[in-house]
């Protein structure tokens, strides 16, 4: 754990478990050591020279690929011109998982590594057998990106935030000005790329100051953005989970600039996820996504964030999942074991959704 140049490192009363290892080198070593059945690929290099990798399981079905990109296929009023997909079409529905776009949010990275461990060994990252989840995941084609922003992850002085105050995550996650004041959320998005009045460059950003969640989609500032969007275009995922972390119980976050039918699917998925969490005695956020219009007159229009852009690149149902980070001043307490468990529930809900027909949902 490196020293934070903008302030003293806080010590949590809750120790980080030995299996919670989200560091850039930890993840690289894990992939080299554990991945045998999957295929590890280099997608890009960060401005800091760190490799962004994906791990893929399951067979592709290129025979279902059409003759057009997604946007052109919709212009032709024939989505099949992009990919023939949907319930029962693919033999192996495609689930794509991105974690670690924001470097201080390690929860999704640990969840992603646990999936890999389950597929490789039948056991989760703690060593607990997960035969049922493994069997369900093996029905899918999986594309997993454990750390999309390794620069931000390398800059983070904490492996996890359980037992620490939320403000410390804001200091580390969104960064500080030269006078030590916090940029905070959403103020950290007012300067992009994040340059100039910077004391500690927050872990939201890569070494060039780019926040992957709000890249310039028509002319990306990050090579990683281009590489990940190409994977989405090439794979046409049936579902894409963008894994983040925040202060509250787990939630699927409201998505914007999507067709009503896609928003309805996201709401239905969130409702099922909440039920599945409840069956494991894990609380879900009381807030639930809604099917609403985007940017009514008199309101600031929402951003076209990365998750929404994933849809326009070809992901059928893109969703942002926010995991609790376990702050000591949060309304509901979450420890490392529960944070891992809720990710297992999320992935099982996704597998069930993708492998069931519309009539079975």
Gross geometry:
globular
Strand order of the largest sheet: 1-2-4-3-5-7-6
Q: Using the 3D structure, state the CATH architecture.
A: 3-Layer(aba) Sandwich
Question: How does the major sheet shape up?
Answer: 7 strands, mixed
Strand content: 5-15%
Which structural class best describes the helix and strand composition?
Answer: alpha/beta
Find the CATH superfamily: Zn peptidases
Describe this structure in words.
With 361 residues, the protein is of the alpha/beta class. The chain has a single domain (24-157, 201-291, 302-355), classed as Aminopeptidase. The protein is built from 10 helices and 7 strands. It has helices spanning 24-34, 70-75, 107-121, 131-137, 150-155, 166-174, 223-235, 260-279, 306-313, 336-355; strands at 39-45, 51-57, 94-99, 141-145, 239-246, 251-252, 318-324. A 7-stranded mixed beta sheet has the order 1-2-4-3-5-7-6, sandwiched between helices. The protein starts with 23 loop residues before the first helix and ends in a 6-residue tail after the last helix. The relative contact order is 0.17. Residues 1-6 have low confidence and may be disordered.
């Amino acid at each position: 754990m490196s020293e934070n140049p903008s302030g003293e490192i806080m010590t949590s009363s809750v120790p980080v478990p030995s299996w919670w290892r989200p560091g850039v080198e930890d993840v690289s070593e894990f992939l080299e050591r554990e991945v045998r059945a999957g295929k590890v690929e280099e997608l890009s290099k960060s401005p800091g020279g760190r490799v962004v990798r994906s791990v893929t399981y399951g067979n592709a079905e290129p025979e279902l690929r059409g003759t057009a990109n997604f946007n052109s296929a919709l212009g032709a009023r024939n989505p099949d011109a992009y990919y023939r997909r949907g319930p029962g079409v693919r033999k192996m529905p495609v689930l794509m998982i991105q974690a670690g776009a924001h470097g201080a949010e390690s929860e999704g990275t640990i969840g992603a590594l646990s999936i890999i461990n389950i597929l490789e060994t039948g056991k989760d990252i703690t060593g607990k057998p997960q035969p049922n989840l493994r069997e369900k995941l093996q029905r899918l084609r999986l594309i997993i990106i454990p750390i999309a922003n390794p620069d931000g992850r390398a800059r983070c002085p904490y492996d996890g935030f359980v037992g620490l105050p939320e403000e410390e995550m804001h200091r580390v996650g969104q960064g500080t000005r030269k006078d030590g004041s916090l940029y905070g959320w959403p103020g950290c998005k007012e300067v992009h790329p994040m340059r100039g009045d910077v004391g500690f460059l927050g872990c939201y950003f890569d070494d060039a100051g780019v926040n992957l969640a709000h890249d310039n989609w028509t002319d990306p500032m990050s090579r990683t953005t281009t590489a990940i969007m190409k994977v989405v275009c090439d794979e046409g995922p049936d579902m894409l989970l963008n894994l983040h972390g925040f202060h509250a119980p787990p939630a699927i976050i409201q998505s914007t600039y999507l067709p009503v039918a896609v928003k309805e699917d996201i709401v239905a998925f969130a409702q099922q996820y909440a039920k599945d969490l409840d069956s494991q005695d894990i609380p879900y956020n009381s807030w639930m996504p809604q099917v609403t219009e985007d940017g009514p007159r008199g309101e600031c229009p929402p951003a076209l964030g990365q998750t929404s852009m994933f849809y326009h690149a070809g992901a059928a149902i893109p969703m942002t999942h926010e995991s609790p980070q376990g702050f000591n001043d949060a309304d509901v307490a979450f420890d490392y074991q529960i944070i891992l468990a809720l990710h297992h529930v999320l992935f099982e809900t996704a597998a069930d959704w993708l492998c069931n027909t519309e009539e079975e949902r």
